[in-house]
Amino acid sequence: MLRRFARPIARLFTGLVLLGAFGLGANNFAIAPSTALAESPVDMSVSKSILTPGPYHAGDIITYQIVAKTVRTIPPLTAAPAMIMRVTDRFAAGTSYISTNGGTACTYTGPDLTCDFALPSFNNANNHPVDLTVTITYEATVQLPTRLPGNRTITNQIEVNPQRTVVESNYANNRFQLNTVLVP
User: Fold this and answer.
1) What is the DSSP letter of 81?
2) In terms of pLDDT, which residue wins out, 176 or 122?
3) What is the mean pLDDT of residues 56-68?
4) In the chain, where are the structural domains located?
């Protein structure tokens, strides 16, 4: 009979640490959350806009604003590991990269600008789930192509988590496309 209950009780306390409250009586104890890492639902998204007022001409220097966001739901009494959020920005043909600001760690290998952001770990000591939102805003300055494209439009594509290294609950909002119309 004892054996039948021993396993379910052992499973109940798996991942919990029993801390004796010495000096407070033999029956007093507390249960603390485990430090084991938990998989938590993640949703990353990205958007992009032009900060430089238009109209835009071939060869103009413009600044884009990029907003990358991560929402993680951390289950109760668990820790979520640190992760890297990668944003890849593919510039239109003929666009020249100039600079990035906003405290970013970016590398440019034409036509792609790749930025990696370290997101912190988080220990949820609450008895309820916690939504952890991290929003990163940075700017990229480029020179538009010096030749006017045939349709006068340049297309810029940006994507967060492009290699799918982080498992997400929604990949539909990971990609954003920005069209810029150039005037003669």
Assistant:
1) P
2) 176
3) 95
4) 2-32, 42-181
